[in-house]
Amino acid sequence: MESEVDGILVVAHELKAPLAVLRQLALSLDDLTEGGEKTRSEMVRVSERAMKQVNDLAKIRRLEDGLFEMEPVSVRAVCDEVSRELGYLFRFNKRDLFIKYSNRTKLVTANRELLYSVIYNFLLNAMHYSGEETRAELVVKDYYDRVKILVRDYGPALPMDVWREMKRGWIKKPTSIAMRPGSSGLGLYIASKFSRYMNAEVGAVRHRDGTSFYVNLPVSKQASLFV
Questions:
Q1: Which of 48, 70, 152, 225 is the most exposed place for a label (fewest CB within 10 A)?
Q2: What angle do CA 50, 189, 173 make, to 5 degrees?
């Protein structure tokens, strides 16, 4: 398993340079029509999303060194930041994102950088399965002694083998999800790795009309001071 992860990291490292070049080339284009400007913007954003995933892969090996400190983190603030970053993608693809906060506990114990990536990957995954008649949903609520962040989509059913791995709490290795071609098995792999590091419970719920991915985060001991 370790050799597989090392292989992934080698590939990620090799991809980083050409992705950076692609982004720079797109930025250097001049005298574009309105349509050309939109295409350039999308090229830049696609390359930036790919680079973000490459950077997340590089962090997986660093998890073993314990370099990502745990601290009190505002769940809503991180969700707001992620939704703002991905808002353009939902608008560009004419998709809707519904957000609901009902959590009374505002702070969790997590690493802000890793939590951001978990939510980012869940939302990016859900974006592919929202449409004119359905939407992606981001819900934050109290869940026993934890805070649950749940991202709901209305896509095809999640394959049983992937669901079982998510139910267990982590995905062994990146995998393509045939029934959900727009889905990123790599993103779910990253999210499960980061969640496990943060001592958070990660999982998925299969619905008749889609899937909910969630992460349950431990409440910060400082939370009571900020309620």
A1: 225
A2: 110
